[in-house]
Amino acid sequence: MFKVSCLNPIAKCGTDLLGDNYAMTENVNEADAILVRSAAMHDMELAPNTVAVARAGAGVNNIPLDKFAEQGVVVFNTPGANANGVKELVIAAMLYGSRDIMGAAQWCQDNTADENIAKSAEKAKKAFAGKEIKGKKLGVIGLGAIGAMIANAAVSLGMEVYGYDPYVSVEAAWKISRDVKHITNVNDIYTDCDIITIHVPLLDSTKGMVDAEAISKMKDGVMFLNFARDILVDEAAMVKAAEEGHVGKYITDFPNPTVVGKKNVIVTPHIGASTEESEDNCAIMAVKQIREFIENGNVINSVNYPRCDAGLCQYESRVTVCHKNIPNMLTQFTGLFAKLSLNVPEMVSKSRGDFAYTIIDIDGKADQSMVDEISKIDGVLRVRIVK
């Protein structure tokens, strides 16, 4: 029986998929796996038996990835599960930013006592004349799951779409409309586009990438949308440009003292993925990944270990090893099994940065003594018998 603990509420449609071999526990110290959304885990010390953490969402800034990798704890996320929810909100933001829908609705709210509001509205509506997004140039920075969906939707809305992503995967590229123009220099997005939306992961290389210099290159009156991470943007510089009118609208989903209540800035309370469908999709994907890892040892969508998939085990036993990405590891593994007179018909090993993961199928019965011998190898972080 495997035990799973939830640090945040996780949609029941996900946890219902755990099956009879799993039990939910509120005691995180007895959990084999942890499901989490936004709970901060940086100060947490995991129990020795915890082998996996699954984030029901894409961002993992609340999880100490390297710390857990050193402990042989595989961390998963759910890329793309909430992509449609974010896409729809970004498209809505382009519309309400272009048409001042929020200002118009607020005018009606403020004039509820006016018995002649219909007549008054005919005079007032001039203040809310906006622009259509059809025919406008949209720049999409980051063509992952969300960025690609936005780019395709914008093409369907009649926009001229430019996409920038030097690291776009082949899988993502196949999903992008041929009408999206691929840009190799992000500065061309800044200088040419009427509307810009950013959808890149938060990394050391992307933190603050939209700085004062980038903002200065943008067209006067540009609309900039940030539904990815607030600190991708130098928001002090962005607010200054918005107040001065160089940026027509800055629309962000991340409220903080720098942006709330500022001129030409529209802020929503981090609702990009706050749809029932997104929460369900994230929960389902997170649970499926936990099950695949615990039951078969396969690593799908990990953010601190490499993707490593050996399918279903066709042999008597399967052992998995989390280890450092250093020379001679595989030779030591196979040498140990040879010493034990055990055949290794299948082995898959992948690396990612400083860490690696190996799946070993053997013709023979795996036992604790075998785990102890593998664990003695320098650089091994965790050994687990899957079958």
Question: What would you say about this model in short?
Answer:
The protein contains 13 helices and 16 strands.
Please give the largest β-sheet.
Answer: 7 strands, parallel
Q: Globular, elongated, flat, extended or rod-shaped: what is the shape? A: elongated
Residue share in β-strands:
15-25%
The computed structural class is alpha/beta
Radius of gyration: 25 Å
Instruction: Catalogue the unreliable spans.
Output: none
**Order of strands across the biggest sheet?**
8-7-6-9-10-11-12
Number of DSSP helical runs: 13
Compressed to H and E, one letter per element, the order equals EHEEEHEHHHEHEHEHEHEHEEHEHEEHE
Distance between the termini: 14 Å
Query: What does the average pLDDT come to?
Result: 95
The tally of strands reads 16
The helix content, as a percent range, equals: 25-40%
Explain what the structure shows.
The chain has helices at residues 12-15, 65-70, 83-99, 101-110, 117-124, 145-156, 170-174, 186-192, 212-217, 235-244, 276-296, 329-339, 368-375; strands at 2-6, 22-24, 33-36, 52-55, 74-76, 137-141, 160-164, 181-183, 195-198, 222-226, 247-252, 265-267, 317-324, 343-352, 355-363, 380-385. It starts with a strand and ends with a strand. Helix 3 (83-99) packs across helix 6 (145-156). It has a seven-stranded parallel β-sheet, with helices on both faces. Strands 2-1-3-4-5 form a five-stranded parallel β-sheet. A four-stranded antiparallel β-sheet has the order 14-15-13-16, covered by helices on one side. Helix content is 32%, strand content 21%. It is an alpha/beta fold and 387 residues long. Helix 7 links the parallel strand 7 and strand 8. The protein is built from 13 helices and 16 strands. The mean pLDDT is 95.
